[in-house]
Design brief:
Blueprint (H helix, E strand, L loop, with lengths): L3 E5 L4 E5 L16 H10 L7 E5 L12 E5 L8 E3 L5
Antiparallel strand pairs: 1-2, 1-5, 3-4
Amino acid sequence: VPGFRLYELGGFPGMVAKPDDLDGVTGEIWAVDDEALVRLDALEGLDEGLYRRAAVPLLPPFADQGIEGYLYNRTVKNRRDLGGEWRG
């Protein structure tokens, strides 16, 4: 849904909430078990405050499923705006 943007963080993207965005972000949905989620949280730097895991509103057919995503938790000042799609 609208309201999110991707920013270049040096070889990888960071998604941030941006209320004035009209396009949203394209991504993938993965099902992971609890052990994998712990490892993903470590990879994304949750303990260091680099990212935070939060519910992300999605379009149908996923709109009512409470999907979580990783939102970049630091400033994107002076970071290149990638729009809604990562082409890494």
